[in-house]
Design goal:
Blueprint lengths: L3 H9 L8 H31 L11 H9 L3 H13 L4 H8 L5 H7 L8 H14 L5 H17 L1
Helix pairs in contact: 2-4, 3-4, 5-7, 6-8, 7-8
C-alpha cells in the first residue's frame, strides 16, 4: 500500500524558497498535475465506497451521509462527489486524462452535465473531443462548449 503520510509530509516540508527560480514553473505544473491525479484517485475510491455500499458498515444511511460524517463535507459537496464518480465510467476519455493529471476536476465538472440517458448514444465521440479540448481550454470555456453540444444533442 502507498504510504500517503510520507508523501503528505514530503509535500508539507518542501522549502519553496530553496527551489531555483528556473525550476519553479516546471514544479508548479508537476504539482498541479499530481493534484489532479490525486483528485481522480479520490473519486475512484468514492465510486468504490458507493458501488460496494461500504458506507453501510459504519451505520451510515447513505454514501452522502458517510461522506458528510467521515470527511465533514457539506451535503452539496458529498452529492457532487458521488455524481462525478458515477459519471466518470460514462466518460472514459475524460476519466483517463483526469487519472493521468492532464485535466482538472474543474474540467470534469464542466463535462459531467452532458451525461444524461437521452445522450448516451452520442456522448462517446463528444466526450473524447471534450477530453482533448480540456488540455488547452480552461474549465469555463470547456463548459460553454459542453453546453452548446448539449443544446445541439437535445435538438436531435
Amino acid at each position: 500500500m502507498i504510504e500517503f503520510d510520507e508523501w503528505r509530509t514530503a509535500v508539507a516540508d518542501v522549502d519553496v524558497g530553496a527551489v531555483d527560480d528556473a525550476d519553479v514553473g516546471g514544479l508548479l505544473l508537476d504539482l498541479y498535475r499530481f493534484g489532479n491525479a490525486v483528485d481522480a484517485c479520490w473519486l475512484r475510491f468514492v465510486a468504490r465506497l458507493d458501488d460496494s455500499e461500504l458506507w453501510r458498515a459504519d451505520g451510515a444511511p447513505s454514501a452522502v451521509a458517510w461522506l458528510r460524517g467521515q470527511l465533514r463535507l457539506t451535503g452539496a459537496a458529498a452529492s457532487e462527489a458521488l455524481s462525478i464518480s458515477r459519471a466518470l465510467p460514462v466518460l472514459p476519455a475524460c476519466a483517463e486524462a483526469f487519472r493521468l493529471g492532464r485535466i482538472s476536476l474543474a474540467h470534469v465538472r464542466a463535462v459531467v452535465p452532458a451525461v444524461a440517458p437521452s445522450r448516451m448514444r452520442s456522448i462517446g465521440t463528444a466526450e473524447a473531443i471534450f477530453a482533448r479540448s480540456a488540455t488547452w481550454l480552461d474549465a469555463r470555456q470547456l463548459g460553454r462548449a459542453v453546453r452548446t453540444w448539449m443544446q445541439l444533442a437535445d435538438e436531435n
